[in-house]
Amino acid sequence: MSDTTVKDKILKVVEEMSPDVTFEEVMERLYFLYKVEQGLKQIETGDIISHTEAKKRIKKWQ
Question: Contact 17/29 with Cβ under 8 angstroms?
């Protein structure tokens, strides 16, 4: 699916949704897919942290 355009991806998602879908549901789904794609790009560029580092950061929040 990497050769498809963003427009193609959006159209596919919308076409697969039920006919009575709401604008809010469409937007939530598109935003979710956008965030997943951002995460995958971060992985490709090496912009990641280890599990251990993530646990350390979470401990600081508490």
Answer: yes
